[in-house]
Amino acid sequence: MKESNTIDASRLKEIRRQTRIVLGEAPEAFIKAFPTLDNLQLAQVFSENLRSRRSALGLSQSATARCMSLSLTAYRRYETGHSLPKLHTAIRWSLSCGVPTEWLLLNPRHLPKLPPIHGLKWQPLVSYISLANPDQLHCLSTLIQHHHKDYPKKLVAADKHPLGQFPDVPTYYRLIAENLRPFRLAVGLSQSEAASLIGICEASYRLYESPQHNTAIGLQSMYGMVSALNIDPTTMSVNSRLYDYRCQQRDNLWQLNSWVTGLKPKQADAVLSLTRTCLEHFELLRVPGRLL
Predict the structure, then answer these.
(1) Is the distance from CB of 81 to CB of 41 less than 8 angstroms?
(2) Which domains does the chain have, with CATH numbers?
(3) Residues 49 and 105: beta-carbon distance below 8 Å
(4) Number of separate helices (H) and strands (E) present in the chain
(5) For tag attachment on the chain, is the N or C end more exposed, with fewer CB atoms within 10 Å?
(6) Are 292 and 88 in contact (CB under 8 A)?
């Protein structure tokens, strides 16, 4: 059920200004990559990203369904745009494949305007760097540095598989509830306004802020806040191992982006070929057991 009240343009401008004070300025390219979408449009964006990024990694639909703890039938509904998952399901996919969750929500038409590391062809390198343990990361880095002395030397590997950073589902939503209210108050939003931005009724929004209810959040609700306020979805997992992992992942990706920007096409192809070989050798995209 959607909230009937809407926020006028001047009030939204003030809310966004306050959000920038609290969280910092969002890059213009990212703001444009998260336009306001209705549920049908968002399902189409999500399905296109899910399908294209799965293909870029060479994963089957059944393997990806296992990543998300879904039946193949349920997964296919997401990939065809017939439905949207809950937030924790999308996060499970992103942690299994080494991709930031918000990349599943980026408008595909804006990919050419985003930093190169977001491009589909770099998906294998992004996944490797996000999933590799210290020894595996050292192996790939040594091989690449043999030909590219300027390859980033300060990349940091996760100390365990990213899925291990994800708490159980009730704990995750309790974490969001505990962070959502302080954030809302810091940017000067009422519960009614927050509900309106997300596109739900105020009673439903109150459940999101209630640690006692551990209410699962639909992906469309999180997107509503991201697109309205231009915030990073990881903001709501602050004070957790998941948040720490996401921050380190983001640092790694920006280091990689600075490097890949200067590569010539043949150099890029060689790096990606080497990365795929290492991905297969270390089985980094082998689907873990059902942990949730």
Answers:
(1) no
(2) 9-33+168-237 (1.10.260.40), 39-166+241-282 (1.10.260.40)
(3) yes
(4) 14, 0
(5) N
(6) yes
Query: Bridge partners of 218?
Result: 86
Closest CA to 243 of 181, 166, 186, 191: 166
Residue type, 10: S
**Sequence-separated contacts (24+) of 130-133 with Cβ below 8 Å:** 130/98, 130/99, 130/158, 130/162, 130/249, 130/252, 131/97, 131/98, 131/158, 131/161, 131/162, 131/284, 131/285, 132/157, 132/158, 132/282, 132/284, 133/157, 133/158, 133/159, 133/160
Write out the two tokens for 139. 């192996």
pLDDT at res. 242? 93
Report how far residue 205's alpha carbon sits from residue 195's, in angstroms, rounded to the nearest whole number: 6
Residues 191-216 pLDDT 10s: 999 999 888 899 999 999 999 988 99
Under DSSP, is residue 20 helix (H, G, I), strand (E, B) or coil? helix
Beta-ladder partners of 86: 218
Say if pTM beats, i.e. exceeds, 0.70: yes
